[in-house]
Write a structure and sequence with these properties.
By secondary structure, the chain is α+β, with helices and mostly antiparallel strands. The chain contains nine helices and five strands.
Length: about 210
């Protein structure tokens, strides 16, 4: 499967803000944004005023990079969101939040979504008791995500049970059993990513 293999810190610099793609490193002085707050490349330090299209494009790229999906995947999510009832922008974010790799990240497994994605593809998680190793797997209300029995002895997975992460309101945790349940679909208020989804809708509506 195609995926981005370059330096993720360049992505944060390109968007001009922290996207927290490297986990704990993003909170230290080693963060690329802290050291070089301008865009990468020869002309990165020069200030350019973006057109309306440029602003919309940057917002779309920001969302795509936060969730770690490719352009074709993101477009597919948008088209699906457009067919759903409600506001297209909020539907788009809802679909991205309900990805299995994102929920695993929300549960506290993995310092970043990319690390959580790796754990999923390595087969460490079950959905409703069945092994699922597809990072983009869409979860639904009442689905239960749990750590596979053989994986629970690892220090990586003990962290969640011993020091549970504060979860969004739409996820209910059961740390003792290494599992969490989707109790509702996420609302816009539950999604804390710094993205203006209206600009994304405007971009794709042209």
């Amino acid at each position: 499967m195609a995926r981005y293999t370059g330096a993720v810190c360049r992505l944060c610099r390109r968007e001009g803000q922290k996207l927290f793609l490297k986990g704990d490193r993003c909170y230290t002085d080693k963060c690329a944004i802290t050291r070089r707050s301008y865009a990468p490349g020869q002309h990165g330090a020069s200030k350019k005023k973006l057109s309306d299209y440029g602003v919309q494009l940057r917002e779309k790229q920001k969302a795509r990079r936060i969730y770690g999906v490719l352009e074709s995947q993101f477009r597919s999510y948008y088209e699906k969101a457009e067919r759903m009832r409600g506001m297209t922008g909020e539907n788009l974010l809802k679909l991205l939040e309900l990805r299995l790799d994102n929920v695993v990240y929300r549960m506290g497994y993995g310092a970043s979504r990319s690390e959580a994605r790796q754990l999923v593809t390595h087969g460490h998680f079950l959905v409703n008791g069945k092994k699922v190793d597809i990072a983009s797997y869409k979860l639904s209300v009442n689905d239960v995500v749990s750590v596979k029995e053989k994986s629970r002895g690892s220090e990586r997975f003990k962290v969640f049970a011993e020091n549970p992460k504060t979860l969004p309101a739409w996820i209910s945790a059961n740390p003792e059993n290494f599992e969490a349940t989707i109790i509702a679909e996420p609302t816009r208020e539950d999604i804390d990513i710094p993205v203006n989804e209206t600009l994304i809708v405007e971009l794709y509506s042209k």
